[in-house]
Amino acid sequence: MRTQETVLEMALGTKVLIWVVCGAGGAALGWVLPGVLRIASSWPIPFMEYLTFLGSFDAPLMVLGRPVVLGIVGLVVAFLLTYHSARLTISDERIVIREGDDARVVERAQVGGVYRHGGKVRIESPEGRVLFDDDVEGGRRVIAAAFTHHGYPWEGVVTS
Fold this sequence. Notes:
The chain is an alpha+beta fold. The chain has 4 helices and 8 strands; from the N terminus they run βαααββββββαβ. It is elongated, with a radius of gyration of 23 Å.
């Protein structure tokens, strides 16, 4: 009897939150950049005269343009972060790890142990070679339950 696959990935709500925070953070930086550069101009920072020059523009187009451009930069960074976050598809036979356009398959026989350390999940071979070591969304108990449900050797949190 084959069980259904379990998918561990970043939730859409978390992705949207990251997009909003990074976009808003970029836009806010665009608004406060001239003031920050004025304050920082007294510090011994290399090439500060160029940064001060860039922050000194007060034309209406620049006043509105800086927040828009830096907001877009923040969104691009957010999209890259969320796109490249790990997505694990766990089945009884294998674990498929997707990060952006890259996908790897870890067969069941290759897995010697799975455990959390810090905020990351580590999958090791029976010989101790690290097969995966990265952040995985879902919380301790959900992640532990996903691996133990499919019979992988989980070390750590009790799931019952």
